[in-house]
């Protein structure tokens, strides 16, 4: 169920884009992201920082896209989000000496501090790679090509998460009796 809630705004965005255009798709994305946030809040009684940031960026960049009738804004939103997440992880790690991944997931995964550090560096690199990839496609390709990249680009997080899982698996101890 949670998986469907997480992906339904983007699926509706693609559908509306394919049936109409980027502007209808953007309006649908904005409405679906608001609905997604309401549903998550109803289930969890709170929104995580990432969910709040995504909602804010979708609404701001979506409003700019619709208000100025300029598709570049919605195409650049992922780049801004990815760079922001990379900077947030890096600033927390370097500036405040806090490992955000460990703070968020440490109660679910017991890993050595060095492994948490490597995971955080991997996520920073992943976010920068995704930001650069989106920026390149948004800057040099058509909106149609960017939409195809966004659709098929979902292979990147799947590959990255599988790789993370394989890396982490060797550090997990079997705690069954």
Automatic annotation (TrEMBL):
It is found in: Cell inner membrane. The chain crosses the membrane at residues 21-43, 49-68, 80-96, 116-139, 151-172. The keyword Cell membrane applies. InterPro entries: YciB (IPR006008). Pfam families: IspA. GO terms for cellular component: plasma membrane. Keywords: Cell inner membrane, Cell membrane, Membrane, Transmembrane, Transmembrane helix. Its main location: membrane. It is a multi-pass membrane protein. Belongs to the YciB family. HAMAP family: YciB. Plays a role in cell envelope biogenesis, maintenance of cell envelope integrity and membrane homeostasis. This is Inner membrane-spanning protein YciB. The gene is yciB.
């Amino acid at each position: 169920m949670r998986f469907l809630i997480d992906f339904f705004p983007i699926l509706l965005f693609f559908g509306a884009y394919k049936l109409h255009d980027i502007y209808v798709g953007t309006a649908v994305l904005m409405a679906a992201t608001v609905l997604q946030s309401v549903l998550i809040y109803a289930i969890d009684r709170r929104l995580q920082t990432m969910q709040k940031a995504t909602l804010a960026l979708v609404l701001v960049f979506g409003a700019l896209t619709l208000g100025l009738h300029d598709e570049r804004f919605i195409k650049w939103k992922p780049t801004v989000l990815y760079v922001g997440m990379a900077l947030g992880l890096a600033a927390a790690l370097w500036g405040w000496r806090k490992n955000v991944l460990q703070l968020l997931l440490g109660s679910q995964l017991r890993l050595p501090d060095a492994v948490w550090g490597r995971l955080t560096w991997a996520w920073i690199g992943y976010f920068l790679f995704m930001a650069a990839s989106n920026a390149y496609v948004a800057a040099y390709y058509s909106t149609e090509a960017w939409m195809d990249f966004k659709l098929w680009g979902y292979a990147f997080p799947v590959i990255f998460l599988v790789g993370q899982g394989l890396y982490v698996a060797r550090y997990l101890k079997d705690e069954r009796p």
